Amino acid sequence: MKKIKKYRNIFLRIADIAIIIAAYYISTLILNNTIDAPTNKSIIITVVLAIVTYTTMLNAFKTYKNITRYENGNDYIIYVIACLVSYTIISILKLIFKTNIVNQRINIIAALGIIVAIISYRVILRFILTQNYINPEAKKPSNRKNVLIIGAGEATKIIIGTLKTTLRDIYHVVGLIDDNINKVNYAISGNRILGTRKDIPEICKENNVELILFSISNISNEDRKDILQICQETGCKVRILPGTKDLIRNKALMDNFRDVEIEDLLGRDPIKLNNKDIKKLINNKVVLVTGGGGSIGSELCRQIIKNDPEKLIILDIYENNLYDIEQELKFNYPNKQIHTIVASVRDKKRLNEIFKQYKPYLVFHAAAHKHVPLMETSPLEAIKNNVFGTYNVVNCAHEYKTKRFILISTDKAVNPTNIMGATKRLCEMIIQAKNKESETEYVAVRFGNVLGSNGSVIPLFKKQIAQGGPVTVTHKEITRFFMTIPEAVSLVLQAMSYAKGGEIFVLDMGEPVKIYDMAQNLIKLSGLEPNVDIQIKITGLRPGEKLYEELLMAEENLEKTNHEKIFIAPPDHDINIEKINQKLEKLDQLLKNNNNERKEEIKEAMKEIVPTYKPK
Q: Helix, strand, coil % (nearest 5) of the chain?
């Protein structure tokens, strides 16, 4: 095999010449039964002419530069064209020069034989090479991983081709899965379609499958969720191909796949938006995002910039995150006006300077301390940043005639049991009160946990799994509402387009998810078994933590909007700015006279200011 590889061109040319000679002699015998001396002379003249013509054409079409292992249908068509051109040239020479060339019937049969033989032996060579090509530095076949591929489409054909060539010593494809019952027992590139999704567990068990490759891109979210849940029950490692287009890029095959994420198991349908209303509000306007370097704030910036604002002002106190989103947006949108400002919402003077300079038309206020246990240990910091920081931005928006102010709130503001939730509820009260006396339209958007956000439980679980466990869950029954960051931000923008002032928009977060189940799923998706390979440890509820989150206060009556996932809690008519200012004066005194060690006093004061706050 090595000698064939080294002298491949010589080998191919000699083989082609032998085929040409044999083709003419066999064609003559087929038609004449015998070969006499004059006929033999004609054959020799014709063969010499054919050898020169065919090899010249095959060389001109660069067929001798093909790597036989990687030839495909397009290459074989080139062989056919080269041979037909050669036949045509020989026929024309016979007509023009009346040379002693064999008759046209023999010429036609020989040409067909040459085409069939040249392609056939190359196909056989390709099969031999792809079956027996072994990288001496690769793992031994006995160490290969058994792979099951979900999907029997074009992407799968490409995957199989690569697994059988460059990765054949690492992976062994046991078969394919497809839900089209008409495809079952048929094969792609020699690999049989073994069954549908319901057969996955049995197939994995029978074939000792270690890795499942999910290669279906055109599939509903519900079906994707269902298939992936079946896969994770097998205990196999599961990797997913985001889209067929990824295979077109010059990447190593396995780099196209990603690990299955919790988002894939949520099974959410894509959110439909009225993009015209959103674009109308943002287009050619100055937009300010506070906390723009955070997980929610940065995604707000990504989606806002797509709607062509005149200027996008990104404000954050943490310069590293601010720098990251600045570089990303300037790279992707080099012609947009993007201004990044390092500043704190606590700094009234600096905020006034920024509002005076840019006069934002829209303000998205995402800056806040959000980590519940940390804020329980430093309650005054939560008050300073969340309450007074919001109050400062609210007043600047009023003074500089901002059209609309959108507060990013949280489900933890509903009947809060912790300081963070209480501060966010007070922020909602501030914007509802301010809305009554200002031309600026103040609204809040309330939603639950977002997957992948800073402080989310998912990155923590992944880190714990990578370290071998244990994965820590505070309570076996604890549940949370979850949404992806892009989902949440898309709905924030849609809610913003509905705003009239004073509303609290509530996002439909779907069904609540048990954190314990989420931990189990993440372990299974890593190809491990919960409480066998990775232990799940129950640590107990943390300070201020609820078992269940609520999205609405009991006294709020939910109103529908034009969007099925957005609802409105109507304005609280009992809240006015005088009452709010009195509450804030009490808080200000609290800040001056207290420290973070006197937590009970701070909680008691917050209970008076936020009636729904009931600390544990």
A: 50, 15, 35
In this prediction, residue 455 carries a pLDDT of: 62
Please give the domain boundaries of the chain with CATH numbers for all domains.
2-132 (no CATH), 141-260 (3.40.50.720), 275-450+482-509+550-609 (3.40.50.720)
Residues 6+ apart with CB under 8 A from 57: 82, 83, 85, 86, 89
Structure tokens at 355: 């509002």
Q: What is the dihedral of CA 93, 95, 101, 106, to 10 degrees?
A: 110
* Rounded distance between C-alpha atoms, residue 177 and residue 193, angstroms: 6
**Among 294, 236, 240, 246, which Cα is nearest to 263's?**
240
> Residue 482 pairs with which residues in a beta bridge?
449
Q: Which two tokens stand for residue 589?
A: 């005194």
Residue labelled with tokens 């509303």? 503
Tokens of 316: 């954050």
Min mean pLDDT across 464-473, 561-570, 571-580 is at 571-580
Q: Which residues pair with 407 in a beta bridge?
A: 365, 444
Give the catalytic positions in this structure.
Answer: 412
Tens-place pLDDT, residues 490-504: 989 999 989 888 889
Between CA 553 and CA 574 the distance in angstroms is 15
Q: Is the dihedral of CA 263, 268, 269, 272 positive or negative?
A: negative
Q: How many CB atoms lie within 10 A of CB 402?
A: 24
Beta partners for residue 313, in sequence order: 288, 339
Q: Is 246 helix (H, G, I), strand (E, B) or coil?
A: helix
Give the global pTM: 0.66
366, 290 contact by CB (below 8 A): yes
Query: Phi first, then psi: what are they for 400, rounded to 5°?
Result: -100, 20
d(CA 457, CA 573): 37
For 243-279, b/e burial (b = at least 16 CB within 10 A) is ebeebeeeeebeebbeebbbbbbbbbeebeeeeeebb
Cβ contact 329:302 at 8 Å: yes
Residue keyed to tokens 């491949």: 8
Question: Is pLDDT above 80 for 550?
Answer: no
**Tens-digit pLDDT profile for residues 487-541:** 889 989 999 989 888 889 988 877 778 889 888 888 887 778 889 889 999 998 8
- Taking CA atoms, 179 is separated from 175, 194, 199, 317, in Å, by 14, 10, 10, 51
506 backbone dihedrals φ, ψ, rounded to 5° = -115, 125
Query: Looking at the predicted structure, is the pLDDT value of residue 565 above 80?
Result: yes
258: enclosing H helix or E strand? strand 258-259
Angstrom distance (rounded) from CA 203 to CA 198: 10
Alpha helices, DSSP H only, in 233-378? Answer: 262-266, 275-282, 295-305, 319-332, 348-358, 372-377
